[in-house]
Specification:
With 153 residues, the chain is mainly alpha-helical. The chain has 5 helices and no strands. Helix content is 78%, strand content 0%. Keywords: Membrane, Transmembrane, Transmembrane helix.
């Protein structure tokens, strides 16, 4: 069982690392290329729609990702066997990061495509919310109510 726990923690950590690679890639591409940066800055209607989409995604996805995971943890994962609970935990951790990635990507696209700081703010809100999803073995054990096995002498 310990090996399954370590494998689940590794997978959740890798997905969290990949989540944080998205803004790094956006910033690198946005700051090093000129072809698409500000392409729609003079289009007021497109800027308005992009800002509105970014705001709505941030307002919907951030609380949904945090509350949905807590709800699923209580309703489904706690009631499953340990092997199934680990699978569900990894799956729903991924869903939570995908929900946070939506306003993140929309925000950065709005920021670089329209030069709108509203998009950057929405992306930063999603990044800040992801700090509540920091993965770790102790957190997994606490949320799944798994006691550490004593391998002693």
């Amino acid at each position: 069982m310990e090996e399954q726990i370590k494998k689940a923690v590794r997978f959740v950590r890798m997905s969290y690392l990949l989540f944080w690679m998205v803004p790094v890639v956006f910033v690198l591409v946005g700051e090093t290329t000129d072809s698409w940066v500000g392409a729609y800055a003079d289009d007021v209607r497109t800027t308005y729609y992009a800002e509105t989409l970014s705001i709505l995604l941030a307002a919907a996805c951030v609380p949904l990702s945090l509350k949905l995971f807590a709800w699923v943890l209580y309703r489904r994962i706690d009631r499953a066997g340990i092997a199934r609970a680990l699978q569900l935990y990894v799956f729903w951790s991924g869903i939570r990061l995908v929900l946070l990635a939506l306003p993140l990507m929309a925000g950065f696209l709005t920021y670089y495509g329209m030069l709108s700081t509203t998009g950057l703010l929405c992306a930063l809100i999603a990044l800040t919310a992801s700090l509540f999803c920091l993965p770790g073995e102790e957190r997994l054990r606490r949320e799944l109510h798994i006691e550490r096995e004593e391998g002693g002498l």
